[in-house]
Write a structure and sequence with these properties.
alpha/beta; Rossmann fold; 5-stranded parallel sheet; 14 helices; globular
């Protein structure tokens, strides 16, 4: 199997990964469609739009991508790309078999689980099928966009590990300041009409960072770099130079990045005006002193574990 260079963004949701993907996609050496797990949204919305503004089912790029993959003898639909490892139709069972084991935060337990599941012939065949499909899709995107490095913005650290076993993957860990990450989950819950406490949002953010850092620890340190959202927004040119150097490609100016052609799916930001790179700090205006105190108390329970796993990110936890 050809060793395609893959840049993989891992992060929590609402951490700026779509912005980073759009910035990187402006580089001629980087090809991407951003996320491959947005298929549910595409399937439910017949008018779902590509970042270029066209309906995705009518977008010339995605039509050509479909045809290129079908030409390899593989079935392909934009609303069902079939690029993620699935062992069960039940999302919870599938996650337990391929991702984090529920109520367990142990890399050792996950390695044992993986070794056991890997003994199942059907599982090995399914893995081979997924590697083949991803290979075909990566190469088709690179060919159509005339690029050399495929960017996967799926964020999930377990997909990161899965791809790293077969492709030349370099990981970019993008993270927000802790309180900003927790507030993002509070805001998103309100947007979708759900209820979530400050404590629950903080628990969610810290647990995700611990899981990501556990997964990163299974990689060679040379295989990942860490970028804070504040760093990305405060010094985008410097951040781009850092990432390009890490990926081994020439660094280019971001002056016209918003005008570059993009064909990405995922976060609604793909359809907005992203010419201005600016850090959102609305938590400062919308969180009360009581909210902030609740965040601090909850965060303090996770900080020792996070610091032991990743001192760098622990420095960005606002207390």
């Amino acid at each position: 199997m050809k060793n395609i260079p893959v840049a993989y963004i891992t992060s929590s949701s609402y951490s700026g990964s779509t912005l980073l993907a759009l910035i990187l996609n402006a580089h001629p050496a980087i090809g991407t469609i951003s996320e491959v797990d947005a298929m549910g949204d595409i399937a439910k919305d017949p008018d779902y739009r590509c970042s270029c503004g066209e309906k995705i089912r009518e977008c010339r790029f995605f039509i050509e991508l479909r045809d290129a993959i079908r030409a390899k003898g593989l079935p392909f639909e934009v609303h069902d790309m079939d690029m993620l490892l699935r062992l069960s139709g039940n999302p919870r069972i599938n996650a337990a078999l391929t991702e984090k084991i529920p109520r367990v935060n142990s890399s050792i337990a996950e390695r044992v689980r993986d070794s056991i599941v890997d003994l199942i012939p059907w599982y090995r065949r399914e893995k081979a099928r997924m590697y083949s499909r991803n290979q075909a899709m990566f190469q088709a995107v690179l060919d159509l966009q005339k690029a050399s490095v495929f960017l996967d913005n799926n964020k999930n650290p377990y997909r990161m590990l899965f791809l790293s076993k077969r492709f030349d993957v370099k990981v970019i860990y993008l993270f927000k300041n802790g309180i900003a990450g927790a507030y993002s989950y509070l805001k998103s819950a309100k947007y979708f009409g759900k209820s979530r406490t400050v404590e629950a949002a903080t628990h969610k953010w810290f647990r995700e960072q611990i899981t990501i850092c556990r997964c990163l620890a299974r990689l060679d340190q040379a295989k990942y770099t860490q970028i804070s959202y504040s760093e990305l927004c405060g010094n985008p040119e410097g951040t781009m130079k850092k990432i390009c150097g890490y990926l081994g490609i020439e660094s280019l100016s971001l002056r016209d990045f918003a005008n570059a052609p993009h064909h990405v799916v995922g976060n609604l930001m793909r359809l907005g005006n992203f010419s201005e790179i600016r850090e959102t700090t609305d938590w400062r205006d919308n969180m009360s002193e009581v909210d902030i105190d609740r965040y601090r108390k909850t965060a303090s329970k996770y900080l020792p574990r996070l610091r032991a796993l990743n001192p760098t990110i622990a420095e960005h936890v606002w207390l």
